Amino acid sequence: IRGGETRLFCNGEKIISYMGMWKQYTEEDAPEILDSANLQMIQGVVARNIIMSDDPLKDLKQCIRDVKEVGSEKLDGISTSIIEFVQTANSIGTDLVQGKDGENMLIPVRMWIGRKDFLIRKITYELDMDQIINSLPEEQRSQMRGVYKEMKIILTEIHKDIELDPVFTDKDFEFVPPEGAKLVDNYTPPGRSDESKTIGKPAPDFTLKDIEGKEAKLADFEGKVVLVDFWATWCSPCLRAMPHIQSLFKIYREDDIVILGINSWERQKDKVESVLKEHNITYRILLDVNDEMIAKYGVRGIPTFFIIDKKGIIRYSYAGMPSNKQIIQQNLEELLAE
């Protein structure tokens, strides 16, 4: 799959995804079943369900309304018809809009189809960020408006050099890192990772109440390794990461490892309790009701993870779940052995 500056390679043993605009690539063991949930590069992207679908045309036709032909254009010498329609946010698989809002929000789509071969040569999706912001929890809207107010984002897929019924060889699945490319555990926009600035420094102390109203202080866990996960109920990547964190909790609950989820950027305790029950999450959840800790730790996006050693020093941080999910467990093992 190639989408703009992103490339994905899977040879059955490894998945390698390359983000060209940041010159970063990730590598992990290939799962038994490959779908969009496995791929960090597609998380949050519009139309990821269509991109990874077994039947893209069938999924592309879901929830289409107001179809009309609006003109024609030549693309790379190929005559195409231009079709416009609108589609619900949920039907194209974006993480940007959740629940019933995704059923109601309509996203304009424009498609260029070859007049002779009827192949899709180009698709654009238009996102109205004001609509998306209004679908978010109230406490999150003001933060988003400062950046995205009155902004429209247009995502374009261009299909070039289409070959029908190609014959693949092993060489087609090889990845040779371009010059200057860096292997990373997690994609990080250059110059945007405030979390990394905390590495090697004492973890900011906190006093927070957990979901049951009991007080917890970071100082209470001196001499233990602490994994902290900043998250929110409306954050899809957060919810996808939580089962993995829960599995680590089950593995290390008898060891000197403490796992804490810090709920931030929301004020709905009942919603938090409902999500924990739905996903069978039993590790301790603290409520950052004033968003003080997310500010002290320099968190700019969630989920974000910090691993604190037995002396209270931040040793590792990850903005988003690492592509190689095992790296967090390896970090815990390393610090536990110290």
Could you explain how this protein is built, in words?
- The chain has 338 residues and is of the alpha+beta class.
- Helices cover 24% and strands 31% of the residues.
- The chain has 10 helices and 17 strands.
- It has a 7-stranded mixed sheet with strand order 12-11-15-14-13-16-17, covered by helices on one side. The chain has a 5-stranded mixed sheet with strand order 1-2-3-4-10, with no helix packed on it. It has a 5-stranded antiparallel sheet with strand order 5-6-7-8-9.
- A hairpin with a 4-residue loop joins β3 (14-19) and β4 (24-29).
- The protein starts with a strand and ends with a helix.
Overall morphology: globular
Radius of gyration: 22 Å
User: Strand sequence of the main sheet, in spatial order?
Assistant: 12-11-15-14-13-16-17
Low-confidence stretches: none
The run of helices and strands is: EEEEHHEEHHEEHHEEEEEHEHEHEEH
Arithmetic mean pLDDT: 81
Helix proportion range: 10-25%
The structural class is: alpha+beta
- Tell me the strand percentage band: 25-35%
Determine the number of helices (DSSP H or I, runs of at least 4 residues). Answer: 10
The biggest sheet, with number of strands, parallel, antiparallel or mixed sense and barrel status, is:
7 strands, mixed
Q: What's the N-to-C terminus distance?
A: 42 Å
